[in-house]
């Protein structure tokens, strides 16, 4: 998975550079994801891709953080994509096609991972977006 997600970073970096957005990439070194089915890896990549695309299109951020690490007490992963741009104003549980197809797609992909939790957070101080599953 780290090679595939590294490829995504390589592809998105020019767009971030063009908009002068700092990317902080925190992917756990040597993370064993062989237990993760191939289709689940695709869902993880697409969630990151869509989240970064939303940040580029909507937030006016100057900094983005991507965190991917294993959950040690349970079989699962923690994925967080955060930015310091404009927060989202969608109440928890009210993500629909009217709020944006990207958020709906992210939530759908997280659900397809099985037992996944997907949260969209807008905090007044850090204006973060977070996605997590286990």
Please, how many helices?
A: 3
How many β-strand stretches? 3
What shape does the CA trace take? globular
Trace the largest sheet across and list its strands.
Answer: 1-2-3
Mean pLDDT: 77
Query: What structural category do the secondary elements indicate?
Result: alpha+beta
| Rg for CA atoms | 14 Å
Order of helices and strands: HEHEEH
What percentage of the residues does DSSP assign to strands (E)?
15-25%
Given as residue ranges, the uncertain stretches (5+ residues, pLDDT < 50) are: 124-131
Distance between the termini: 17 Å
Structure summary:
With 134 residues, this protein is of the alpha+beta class.
Core attributes:
134 residues; alpha+beta; three-stranded mixed beta sheet; 3 helices; 38% helix; 16% strand
Q: Overview of this structure, please?
A:
The protein has 134 residues and is α+β, with helices and mostly antiparallel strands. It is built from three helices and three strands; from the N terminus they run H-E-H-E-E-H. It has helices spanning 2-18, 38-59, 101-112, and strands spanning 22-27, 63-70, 77-83. The protein has a three-stranded mixed beta sheet with strand order 1-2-3, covered by helices on one side. Helix 1 (2-18) packs parallel to helix 2. It starts with a helix and ends in a 22-residue tail after the last helix.
């Amino acid at each position: 998975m780290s090679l595939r997600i590294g490829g995504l970073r390589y592809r998105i970096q020019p767009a971030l550079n063009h908009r002068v957005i700092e990317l902080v990439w925190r992917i756990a070194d040597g993370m064993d994801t062989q237990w993760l089915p191939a289709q689940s890896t695709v869902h993880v990549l697409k969630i990151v891709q869509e989240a970064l695309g939303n940040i580029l299109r909507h937030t006016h951020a100057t900094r983005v953080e991507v965190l991917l690490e294993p959950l040690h007490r349970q079989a699962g992963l923690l994925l967080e994509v955060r930015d310091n741009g404009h927060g989202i104003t969608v109440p928890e549980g009210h993500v629909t096609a009217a709020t944006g197809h990207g958020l709906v797609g992210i939530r759908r992909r997280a659900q397809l991972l099985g037992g996944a939790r997907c949260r969209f957070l807008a905090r007044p101080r850090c204006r973060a977006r977070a996605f997590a599953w286990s």
